[in-house]
Amino acid sequence: MTLEEQIKKTDEELIRELQNGSKDAFDELVERFSAPLLNFIARMIGDYTIAEDLLQETFIRLWVKKDSYREIAKFSTWLYTVAGNLAKSELRRRRFRRMLPLSSGSSGFGEDDDRCFDLPDPNSDPEKDHERRNIQRRLDEEISKLPVVFKEIIILRDIQELSYEEISTILKIPLGTVKSRVNRARGRLQESLKDLR
Amino acid sequence: MVTCERFEQDYEAWRKGELTTEESDVFQKHLDTCNNCQHFAESFSTLRQYLVAMPQQEPSVRFKYQLNRKINDINTGDYKERSFVNVFPRWAAVGAGIATGFTLALVVIILNIDSGTNNTQMMADKPKAESHEQFASNEIPDSTVQNSDTMNVPESNYRLDKYSQAVSSEY
Question: How far apart are CA A176 and CA A165, in angstroms?
Fold first, then answer.
């Protein structure tokens, strides 16, 4: 099977192939979901290094428990549920140990982070870039300060851009609750970022 | 008629064109006349703009290599589940926490009871406060004399000591 054919397949077709033992299907799913899941987990826990460990754990669970997936829900929501549960467990474990406050100094997304988000544009204005980075860092900080219920919902809706229905399935809460929670989370963010405007 | 609350709730759907034409018209009219909702719409747009533009990061280069190595380990049966801390069941951790808390509370209670008994004993042994007049008239309560006797302290020294204590506590 060519790479192009593999890319055209839906997630559900790929998981079916994975259930039949295809490693290629697994690799393609990893390719598709690595970045969005990493960013989801990282923003939930505020640390990219641990987020990568949890991402690995998510894919290991996918490999080990691939047969437990039933096609009653979208594959993406199933995988997000697994990743979200791991992130929440990590947050609980941290709260329990009180090891590390989520917003201590660098939120894990700072300038000193040696990972590069994107290549610098040679035509870009350094001043504007600096301002943009500051806003993004501030936004990250404010998101990390939100209670978990608001944090996960704002990440899923406004950063990952999932639909209300998908979020409702992932978080196992009614559609109406999702909508009202999104509004409340946005309200809190708007309130805390007043000075940016 | 649209309330501000309803406007804020369905603003996103309205922007995406998910409302009916009639509803959209009503929303537009409300937005044209309501300062509060105009401010909301503006700040909502700015926030959405920032959030959507949040950078998305890729996993590190070694991520896929490490993942594949672990998958191979699972397939060959060499994969060690996880560390002790992770495997340690939550109920056991909670139980251990409760037991430790209970033990600490017990120790604190025992220490308190012990020191409480000593304090009561000391209070019982302590002579009652004497007035300047008693000292001046050289009348010493029997109990004081008794106690000074049992402690083998010379009576004059003891009286002087008690007097200085009483004066210092008063001033």
Answer: 10
